[in-house]
Design goal:
Strand order of the largest sheet: 22-23-1-24
Number of strands: 24
CATH superfamily of the largest domain: Enolpyruvate transferase domain
Number of helices: 12
Low-confidence stretches: none
CATH class of the largest domain: Alpha Beta
Helix content: 25-40%
Strand content: 25-35%
Distance between the termini: 6 Å
């Protein structure tokens, strides 16, 4: 799919933030591990969430879709599927369910699409082996094979600066281990808000976790049971950030609704304020007005998904915008640091990269360009909002990848006044 974006002088109106992808994944998997029925209200409908739903059905979950709600009843004892679980391009699906597959009595293969099989899982496989799980990967990458029979428990360790998804996967499965599980994080934990979200979802299902204040040690009692719960999925800041950035780039005023405070990536509102935009929060609604015109330096260890939108904002901010502690971005749907440097340069932005940072020097006059999404939803959305403030027309190739997290992105941006055509 090709999307064309033209310079837009003003946005106005209201939009509803899409449901949180991160919360939807976690609620569906927790529900699958519960033999009682769990209701999930307003989950995200996207490619990644569809992958998790397919996978959980293969593991034995009974899933009923009723309008904007899901009713999920776990099988009690997970079943090993006859065929491989295809996780599409969803790293969350694969990394969360790899430990869960150990709870079946059979052999489970988890694989995915061409981008996903390039994303590492080796550290998670090694951590599981220390807990008595018979599992393997293809030289540290998918496909993964898990021979079920349960999790023994014991002690294991993981680095905290690789992927918080590994830790979340262990936290889902470890409460059902035969013996107590102790997980040591050997470096400072990055993406802490996402681990805290996992803990919140697990506690809603009655799971007991003993967690150190630093989130460097998790001690999990064995032989627990997931209880039923009701989840109301909040809005997704990491997706809504692109709408907020579009307003801040064009100097417009818009409202984005359904954004509960203290969610992962809610720090975007603080960053926009630091860059000069005016942000007002009314309950669960965020109003933004004015331009984000000041360059800033941002440590993104706890907000890696905001890097593309921060980079786009930096292209029109005065002075220098520097994004640091971003090395993990090289192992996302694309190498996001290199992808951003390459594509933003096409607009005329002055961008440089090193191993773990991006530096953008502005102001620059931006011109529309033909850019490549690299199959990465957040690259596609970042280039779209930058196209709104570039002279001429911007053409985004491979824009269909936004369906991974925000299928209605182009429609929502157009409803606010963005000059966008899709073909």
């Amino acid at each position: 799919m090709i999307v064309r974006v033209s310079n837009t002088s003003e946005l106005k109106g209201k939009a509803i933030a899409p449901p949180s992808k991160s919360y939807s994944h976690r609620a569906i998997i927790a529900a699958t591990l519960c033999h009682e029925t769990t209701r999930i209200v307003s989950p995200l409908n996207s490619d990644d969430i569809s992958a998790t739903l397919r996978a959980c059905k293969l593991l034995g979950a009974n899933i009923i879709e009723e309008g904007s709600e899901l009713s999920i009843t776990g099988p009690g004892k997970l079943q090993a599927p006859n065929n491989a679980i295809d996780c599409g391009e969803s790293a969350s699906t694969l990394r969360f369910l790899l430990p869960v597959a150990a709870l079946t009595d059979g052999r489970t293969t988890l694989t995915g699409g061409p981008q996903l099989i390039k994303r590492p899982i080796g550290p998670l496989v090694e951590a599981l082996k220390k807990l008595g799980v018979d599992c393997s990967s293809s030289k540290g990458y998918p496909p993964a094979i898990v021979n079920g029979g349960g999790i023994v428990g014991g002690s294991t360790s993981l680095r905290g600066d690789m992927s918080s998804q590994y830790i979340t996967g262990l936290l889902f499965a470890a409460p059902l281990a035969e013996h107590e599980t102790d997980i040591q994080i050997t470096t400072t934990l990055e993406s802490k808000p996402y681990v805290l979200l996992t803990i919140d979802v697990l506690e809603k299902h009655g799971i007991v976790l003993n967690v150190s204040a630093s989130l460097r040690r998790f001690t999990i009692p064995p032989n627990q049971s997931y209880k039923s719960a009701v989840h109301k999925v909040p809005g997704d800041y990491s997706s809504a950030a692109f709408l907020l950035a579009a307003a801040a780039l064009t100097g417009s005023s818009i409202d984005v609704e359904n954004l509960l405070p203290n969610q992962p990536d809610s720090s975007i509102v603080t960053l926009l304020s630091q860059m000069g935009a005016e942000v007002k929060i009314h309950g669960n609604d965020v109003r933004i007005s004015g331009r984000a015109s000041k360059g800033i330096e941002v440590d993104v260890r706890d907000m890696p998904d905001l890097v593309p939108v921060i980079a786009a904002l930096g292209c029109k901010a005065s002075g220098t915008t520097r994004i640091v502690q971003a090395k993990r971005l090289r192992y996302k749907e694309s190498d996001r640091l290199s992808s951003l440097a390459l594509e933003l340069h096409k607009f005329g932005a002055k961008v440089s990269e090193d191993l773990d940072s991006l530096t953008i020097v502005s102001p620059r006059r931006l011109s529309g360009a033909k850019v490549d999404s690299h199959g990465d939803h957040r690259i596609a959305m970042a280039c779209t909002v930058l196209g709104l403030v570039s002279q001429g027309e911007t053409e985004i190739v491979g824009a269909e990848c936004v369906a991974k997290s925000y299928p209605t992105f182009f429609k929502d941006l157009e409803s606010l006044g963005g000059r966008i055509s899709v073909r």
